[in-house]
Fold each of these.
Amino acid sequence: MVSRVDYSTSMKEGIDATELIDQIKFANEHEEMLTPKDRFEMRQCSHALSSRRFHFTDVIRDAGERYADVTIDNFDCPSDDHRKALEAVKGYLQASTGGPRRGLLLIGPTGTGKDHLMMSVLRVLIHKWGTECRWNDGQQFFSDVRNAYAENEGESSLLNELSRCRLLAISDPLPAAGRLTDHQMNVFGIVMDRRSRSMLPTIATVNVASRAELYDRLGDRNADRLCEDAVVVPCNWSSYRQRTRPLAMPAATPMNQIPQTA
């Protein structure tokens, strides 16, 4: 379930965290010179930094502790394809000074580190620029919509929240196999259409091997909306889990086949 805390008015989006820290440091060093207004502004700066930390903690709570320490710097790059993807993500962050204006779409097979890259981007956008983000597991997204309908809350409230948040992050909206159902395509399309009209960015990871598979399984209209004005980063390499899986131990030799020594 996504966090319900509203950080949008407290994080001072667009102000670099370094600037906030410098202002607080200067104020502490010249406390005797501060006016009541200065002191209020310094409290606001301190509150903004705290809100950013708490907000990222909320996102990690939803996404999982696996991503608590992921950064751009600790993304493993054993090949040129990895390095190209990392450079594309770094370019996206450089173009997001003050907060994101475009979307980001990471596509590739499972286990290739797409969510590592996405969470690394969210870390920078939240901590450095104070961007409010709503993170969703893809299939949990549809489950939340079903639950809201079943509990007579209706879909509209949840869809409005997801459609209007400053930045929406989605971890693979596709099922493990096959396409979205017609209802899922419709729900996903409502959110993407509204965000597109409001020019609100979306960051997503999708477990597909190509754009063709993306369009087939997500639906042409939804794939168009997700790719629209987004940086698309292919992550087409072998699974990290396969590369790091321990080698199988050789089978033990039966006792009756062990050569006997004299």
Amino acid sequence: MKLLLHIGTAKTGTTTAQQWLSKNRPTLNNTGLWYPEVGGVNHQWLAILAMDPDKPDDGFYRLGLTDPEKHEAFVSKVSEAFAREYASASSARLRTAVISSEHLQLRLPNDEMVARVARFLADYFTSVEVIIYLRPQVDYAVSSASTASLLGSKVDVDWFNNESSLEAHLDYNQLVDRWEEAFGRSNVRLFSYRHAPSLVEMLIERFGIDRTNTVSVPNLNTALSVEKIALNNALQIPQFNEDNVVNQNRDIPFSALPKGNKLSIGLPLARKIQDRFNESNRLLAERRDDVRWEDLNPDWSAYDRPSNLHLLDQECLFDRELASLVQAFNGQLHLERAAHAISGIQFAVAQGKVEQARGHLRAALQEIDAAAQIKNLKSNADRMRSIAVQAAQALRQPSPQS
């Protein structure tokens, strides 16, 4: 079986492509393509598998991998799941696999980590074609500002001027070199995000996929307005608590807020950011025939508007109170959802539907755990936990459907 390994880069339509691939798995199978279900929509697990277990980052913490032993168990679990699914796909005579995750670009900064990916995949695939979409670095920086803000970073002028942070992800010449070293230069293909067809369009054309039998997916990851980024800057609600457990009480219903104004960094800063990468881009364009210098230069007219970055540093006299209010609001929502799940437990138990009741119990306990992160809601969460456990006591008794 052959593999198409799509590693991003981030902010080149990766989320939309992954959603499309995930939603269209049956149609892809009928065309001889396999988009693995291991990991769900985004195959981040492959990047986690290749990372150093003793150097955890936020990706580890989101998965609860707080020590090397948990990382080892995770690697073992996903490896076994992938092997089983691969065997099934091979039995179904699927000819080509597609694996996609921008985390392969973002989280593997050295040759050894990329080599681990190559060694893992070599046990399954006769050939691997690495697909990398590239866009001008300043465009990437502006687009990623929204994601960084949602993840808890303070986005301001200093964030855009942080050379080490951007260069770790955006030196395309070094990025491509790492993947060429592991998979061979001829097996790495570069595409211009600005000028080439999207990954989805490329797959449709290359494999003759009948578009009429596919589920369409809207463009995802819409940008935050400058006002919404300023709100996140003021709140500064941490992404993780002191035990590196994900803070589940920081969601803000941005869609319910006014649209706001587009973030603008201004032409001088835009040119300053892009200038950092001109030499690297030149070297890459000189040694590759599938990317041009022009592909990596932005449309400068997009930066003609004056900068509004000064709006990101507006002082808020009640920022701490507002942050507490947002988290309390999230905690109350978790308790409401837990109460709904407990009703589901009771209804399922009454009907003798054991597995359904267990599913509702798991959902209730997850919501209760999230609410318990709020100190003032912990006693309410503990009481609701007792109610959920009591409602599920009947699961220990023989069921007509068990």
